[in-house]
Each structure stands twice: as structure tokens, then as C-alpha cells.
# Entry
Amino acid sequence: MNFREICKADDEALAHIIRTNLKAHKLDIPGTVYFDSNLDHLSDFYLGDKTERFYFIALEDEEVVGGIGLARFEFFDDCAELQKLYLADSVKGSGIGYILISMIEDKARELGYKQMYLETHTNLATAIHVYEKSGYKEIEKPAGVVHATMDRFFIKKL
# Structure
């Protein structure tokens, strides 16, 4: 398994992995990233401002099998949002999710963030287990959060 920063060539494969996961969990609905036109161009967002955003790609035999990102989260001080942790079915259960979380937390610290926030959905029970096992604590929905479809919210001090 290899890891590197996202590049434009990863966009199509990553969008496919994310949409496949959302559809499998009945989250291919309005209000999720499934219908976000920016999903097909994630590299543009994450490469746009490397002082506040970053995205790691996971590769197996040079094939994109997942990734994880972060971006500034405005509702808490010195906080990054853990974003778009998705894996191909072929690597689920292998521990790669935990590795990616550790990598993105290290990157967040490097960028000066003191805590990580994330939002997810009850349908993603395995992801919730991984987040809790990684030290994330559930909180109430922060005021101002606009993603109406997401119904579980977590935070972790770095």
C-alpha cells in the first residue's frame, strides 16, 4: 500500500469510489456529496489552498483504492474537518482507514490545527465504529452546519 497527495488524475477513480459507497448505504440522495458537481474535481479543491486543505490518496498496485481529506472548519477555533474518507470494497477491513485517519491527523497538526471535526450518517455504521475507535467523541450538531442529511457529528482534540 502506498499513499500520496491527490492529483488531477485521481479525480475520476475517487469520485467513483465515493459514489459507489454512498449508493451501497442508500445515501445516493440530495444533501450528500453524491450529487455535488465538485466531486468530479476534488483535486481542484484540495490543491487550491495547501495551507488549509489536504487530501491523501491510498494506492494498491498503482490503483486508487481510497482517500481522506481535511479542510478548515469555521465553526470551532483551530479546527479542521475530516472529509471524504472512502475506501474501495477490495481494501475494507484491512486497517487502511485507521492509517489514513492517523496520516490526516498528523497533517492537521502540521498545518496548526488543534482539533478535528467530522460528520457522517447513521447508515455508515462501520465508519462510525472506526471513528469512535480512533478517539472521536460524538457531539450535538454544531449551529450553522448546513448538511441536513448528515445526522452524526464527532470531534477529537489533536
Observations:
- The mean pLDDT is 94.
- The chain has one domain: 2-157.
